[in-house]
Amino acid sequence: MGLRIEVVQQARALLQQGYSVRQVAERLGCSRKDVEKVAIAQSGLRNTRLTVTCALMLLLIAWLVAPRRHEDRVPAASATPATLSLMDTNILAAYELIAAGSIEDRWLLEKEVFTGSELAHERNVLARLKDELEGALDHYTTIAEVRALKNRFGGQIAPSLFSDFGGGSSKLIGIPGEEIATLSKKARSGIEVVFYPRSHAQHPRLKGQHLLYDNLWRVCIMAMLDYPDRTWRDAAFIHELWHAKRDRDGAASAHAPPLSDSWISEELEAHALQAQVMNIGTASKYRKLLEQTVSHAPARTVHDFLTTVPPTTFRMLDTLFQQPMRGEAEFRTAQYVLNLGVAWLEHHQKNQARQEQEKIALYRSIVRPHTMTVHPGR
Ligand SMILES: [Zn+2]
C-alpha cells in the first residue's frame, strides 16, 4: 500500500534531516518498504548510504537494547524514559550520518616489529609522532590549561610501543637522538605515550579505543594512526593528558568510582578543554555553531533539546574538520552531543549550582556503549 501525499512529504523532510528509513517508518507509523521507496526516489546516492546505515543499525541495536547500568536508570528529574529513548535514537542517527561519511582507518603500523630495518623505520615514525604531540602543546598555549600541561609534560613525552607479550606491556625502543635510558627517565618524570599497531587493536587492555589514559600504567595509549584531522587528534590527546595531570596531582576525581559525580566532573573538564582546542583549530567556528544551535532551541530541558537537534546539525559540526576515519565516528559524535548539551545548559540554566548538577546528570544519561568515554580508559 502506498503512502498518502502528506505522509510522503513528512518522510522526505525527515530523510533530508538525516533520519534513517527505519526511524522515519517508526515515527510516521508506516512500513519501512514504503519509506525506502521515498528514499530511493529522493536520490540514488542516498540509497547507497542508507544501505550502510541499515547495516550499522543492526550492529548497534544490540547495544541499545542491552540493559542499562544502575546509574543510567536514574535520569535527570526532567528526563522521562520516553525522552531518553528519543534522544538515543537521535544520537544514533547522528552517529550513522557521521560514520557514513567516514574513510577507512589509516594505520601507520600493521603489527609489532622486532628487528632490522623495520625497527629503524618504527623508531623514525615514533619520533615524528612524538614531535607532533609536543607541537600540540606548543600550539594551543593561549588556553591556560594547555599552558599548565606544557609546564608539566612539555619536552617530556616518551614514545613507546605496545606489546601483547605477557598479557600486555609497553616497550621503549628508543628514537633517533634519544636513547632508551633517556626515554625511561622521561617516562617517569613526564608522560609515556604507548602506541599500538592495528594487530593489537582488539587487545583486552585497548578494546579498540584510539586514545586513552590508563591510570594503572599511568600512561597515554594511542592507536598508531595517521589522523586526517590534526586538530581532532591534538584535542583528543590534550583531553587524555588532562587526566594524566589530574592523576599526577593526586586529584580525588582521578580515582573516584566510574560515573560518580567526582569522576564525571573530571570528564566534563577534559571535554570542555578539548572543545576549546577544537574551537581554536576551526578559527572559532566550532563555538559559533554550537551557540547558534542552542540559542535557537526553545526546548524545555536539555534532554528535550537533544531529541530535536537534526542529525544534519551534527554533521555540520563535523564538516568543520577533515573527514573522520571510521574508528573516529563514535567519539566525534559523543563529543558533539556533550558539547551541544553543555552549551545548551550554559545558555539556558543560569543558576550555577544547578547548571553543574545538570551537566553531570546529562553526562550520565548520554553515556552509552556507542559513545566514547564510557569505559575504563576515560
Ligand atoms: Zn576522558
Rg computed from alpha carbons, rounded to a whole number of angstroms: 22 Å
Which H/E pattern describes the elements? HHHHHHHEEHEEEHHHHHHH
Side-by-side strand order of the widest sheet = 2-1-3-5-4
The coarse overall form would be globular
Number of strands: 5
Would you tell me the overall average pLDDT? 84
Distance between the termini: 49 Å
Residue share in β-strands:
5-15%
Content-based structural category = alpha/beta
* Helix coverage percent: 55-70%
Number of domains: 3
Bound molecules: zinc ion
* Number of separate helices: 15
Notes on the protein architecture:
The chain is globular, with a radius of gyration of 22 Å. It folds into three domains: 1-66; 71-106 and 249-378, no CATH class; 116-225, no CATH class. A five-stranded mixed sheet has the order 2-1-3-5-4. Helix 11 crosses helix 14 (329-348). The chain has 15 helices and five strands. It is 58% helix and 7% strand. With 378 residues, it is of the alpha/beta class. 40% of the residues are buried. The protein has helices at residues 5-16, 21-28, 32-42, 44-65, 81-100, 116-139, 144-153, 180-189, 230-248, 261-281, 285-295, 302-308, 311-318, 329-348, 352-366; strands spanning 157-163, 169-171, 191-196, 211-214, 219-223. Zinc ion (ZN) binds at residues 239, 243, 267, 270, 373, 378. Zinc ion binds next to helix 9 and helix 10.
What tags apply to this protein structure?
alpha/beta; 3 domains; 15 helices; disordered C terminus; 378 residues; binds zinc ion; 7% strand; globular; five-stranded mixed β-sheet; 58% helix
